Amino acid sequence: MTTTETPRLGTAKRGGRLAVPNGAYRGLLAAVAVIFVGLVLWFVISIIVQAKPAFSTLGFSWIVQKTWDPTHHKYGLLPFILGTIETTAIALVLAVPIGLGTALALAYLVPHRLRASLGTAVELLAAVPSVVYGLWGLIVLAPLCRDYLEPFLTSVFGWTGLFNGPNQGVGLLLAGIILFVMVLPTMVAISRDVLAVVPNEQVEGAMALGATRWQVLRKVVIPGARTGLLGGFTLATGRALGETVAVALVIGNTPFIAHSIKSPAATLPSLIVNNFGEATGTELSALFGAGLVLLVIGVAVNATARALVRSTARGGAASVAVA
Amino acid sequence: MTTLTFEAPADPILERRRQIQGVAQASLNRRKTYSKIAIGVCWAFLAVAIVPLVGVVAYVLIKGLPAWNADFFTQVTEPEGIPGGGVWNAIVGTAVIGAIATAAAVPIGLLCGLFLAESDGRIAGAIRFTADVMTGVPSITIGIFGYIAIVSHTKQFSGLAGAFAIGIIMLPVIMRAGETAIRGVPFHLNEAALALGARRATVARRVVVPAAMPGIITGVLLAVARGLGETAPLLLTIFGNQYLQWNPTKPMEALPLVIYNNSSQPYADLIQVAWGAALLLVVVVLALSIGSRVLAAVLQREKR
Q1: Percentage of residues in chain A having pLDDT higher than 70
Q2: A211 → chain B, closest CA residue
Q3: Domain ranges across chain B
């Protein structure tokens, strides 16, 4: 104790039950971070390992082959990849304009005292589990779709050839509509957040120059929030691509490439969930392979979305949880 | 004659001004009409968005409430045709799985959040980005992971495998929400505590985490709400069980599974049970979401 050296901050010995050295504290945090990284690596690697037999027995081309017929050892994923893309596309065609219009209305048009409560309502709807949307789609929407929407669309757009075949209710169209309803709250909540952060000075400046309300929205607000909006749309795309149960309930589940928007079809997630119970051997490995394809697509879409959303430099606890 | 000579020269400047005013007025009218139409379209889209969303909630309420009775909450599932029966086994399953997943994911998630909040390096950035991407990974792939990691080794579907998958879904949400809440604590509180000679661990435990508590609780409750509603991972891990099962090492039932399995059955009584279960799940999830907001607001007010 004769030394004159001043102890470094936090290294002096002190009593008390919280006397954990800084090093141990940092070590604990780092260890937990390593656990998280380890879990993610384990997740990715285990799916790759389990999918490997499918790739080694079938080669890489099975991913783009057309036939899924386990009894004849054909495991082509193309119908499901197309189904995933088509349902997501239908959902986005509906969700992008309607979501953007709704977000604009909620952020700028609805009377001030309603904005907060409506915004909260939208965020709460984003928490409704997807299986509930699936149940509603199958029991309520499917008959409506079969009896009213599909005959109507066929009579109006039948000439395009996209609406051939019988009106069945379940199919690509209904799956797309359910995905649209399901991603809408997420999309509106994120879009509203990024639209609302456009600086008020810019909005007022545009109005002072004589712009109409729509011109302000179109020329100032939307361009100002463009990156964030794109990120929100991409996140919604990711949710639509990866949705399993809501789609599996309403898409009809046939392993063929759809020839019409009304046709039953299947997506990668619905393929996995419908065949998992009985699959063994190469089929099981092929299902893991389908999961791997889905994972790669999902990670690519989400990484893009996150990069876009982050570049608008926002995103509190709420928007992370909503996403 | 005189009037004619006054009119005839038609002052070119005046004429030009009138012309410009005319053009401006026409432009304004056109822009106003265009604006009215576009704004009208926005309102119409708002209406289009409200209809299905209100429709879902209304249907769940109208169809689900009749399914609620004492048996619904106390009896186990009965096969089709047999009257009565409830979802007590599914309630138990969801509660047990949710409790295990939360108990595992909250401490790890919060410590990871603390790590991210206290680190700014490249590694921390990569972990943060990974967590963000993980929040959006298709949940069925996490179910596959649960199957590979637990079910294929124990040779048995189990509540634990489901809790593992649900916990992994909750983990990144808790991490990022925790980090955001902790970063929101003013840094001078840190500095004041450090200046008093407190260790970093003490600062975190006594100062930073309590101050961040409203945000942390909100994040955790939202993560739990999200975890409880997940269906796809459970289909691959817990399998379902029509009998009451408290033991998480055995196959279990869960509310989302009841909804999923019953809704595609052709029996009205099973679909009725699905609506009842949907209402229960929506009520629980919304209670957690609303509760998190209320609790956060109350804690925020107490701190002041």
Answers
A1: 89
A2: B31
A3: 2-66, 70-303
